[in-house]
Amino acid sequence: MSIDPPTLRLSAREAWIAPAYFAAYMASLFVSLESELHHWITFVLLPLTLAFAFAPRDRRGLRAVLATFGLRRGNLRPGVGWALLLGAAVTVFQVTLGGRRDAIWELIRSGDALWLYPLTFVLMLLMAGFTEELFFRGFLQTRVERLVRSPWLAVAIVAVLFGVYHLPYAYLNPMWPSAGDWGAAWGAAMGNGVLGGVVLGPLYVLSRRNLLPCILLHSLINAAPAMTMLNISFG
Question: Residue 72 is part of which domain span?
Answer without folding.
Answer: 5-234
